[in-house]
Design a protein that fits this description.
The chain is of the alpha/beta class. It has a single domain, classed as Rossmann fold (3-Layer(aba) Sandwich), CATH 3.40.50.720. The chain is about 40% helix and about 20% strand. The protein is built from 9 helices and 12 strands. The strands form 4 sheets. A 6-stranded parallel β-sheet has the order 2-1-3-4-5-10, sandwiched between helices. Strands 6-9 form a two-stranded parallel sheet. Strand 3, helix 3 and strand 4 form a beta-alpha-beta unit. The radius of gyration is 18 Å and the shape is globular.
Amino acid sequence: MVVLVTGAGGQLGQALQYIAQKHSGITFHFYGSSQLDIRSQESIHTIFEAIKPNFCVNAAAYTAVDKSENDRENAYAINVKGVQHLAEACRDFGTTLIHISTDFVFDGKKQTPYTESDPTNPQGVYGRTKLEGEDKVREVLKSYFIIRTSWVYSQFGNNFMKTMLRLAGERDSLSVVNDQIGTPTHAIDLAEAIVTIVLSNSRNYGVYNFSNEGTASWYDFARKIFEVNNVTIDLKPIPTSQFPTPAKRPEYSVLDKSKFKSEFKKPIASWEVSLQQHQV
């Protein structure tokens, strides 16, 4: 089984590299953006021709949510056109695409967990380009899995957990929003879910939600991060109105994982348990 991974330098790409040694039945090929620029059809075709992957995991994305509001051209080039190029290569080479998407395709107005069939209504450039990328996959391919996930963090790359721990080393107190509700997802759990799909032989293609279990506000998440890491700090909950950002965040973006659990029979850890387990 040959699996091509784009975006190898990002959180998910690094998490997949971290677990790859446990899965000797899969030959992984990892490519960062300097080796495989998904904006270049030629770059993609050259690598597909060389390794002829059974699966392509697209972990490459423009994920700077706030920056994208003023950098739509680059966000579009990577999250839409780049995804289209990958989908076309997958079609031409008979490769199954596993494409990573986001809870930002929803508007956050719901009060119960989002299912895969709920109406999408992204509120910013990042969410819109990610949804358009999904649309390109659906237009071009039949053999694909789109994985919508949320609040990804890990010991790799830049993320909320690492930011909180860094700030705690610089300040005596922190204020964190407590009225945005979602589910933290450890990148290693997401990586293991992807490997489960690869090994499943499933042909039930389509969109699947995956995150850890449970719900939290960003304040709840921060509090647990500090607890697990034995950090003492004055942590204050604040409303979103006191922490304005260029891009609007969903107020509620908990994902319903019933479809994933039914198809792949894989138990999913709660975010609290996963946070504790994956401390490095």
